Amino acid sequence: MKKLVYVLLLATFCLPSPQLCAQEKAQEKPKTEERAKPAIPVKVQFVLAEYDGDKKISSMPYSFVAMADVNRVSLRTGVRIPIELDTKDQKTTYLDVGTNIDCGVTSEQEGRFSLSMTFERSAVYPSSSAGDEKMEVIRPNGMPLIRQFRASENLILKDGQTVESILSTDPLNGHVLRLSITINVQK
Question: Where are the domains of the chain?
Answer without folding.
Answer: 2-33, 40-185
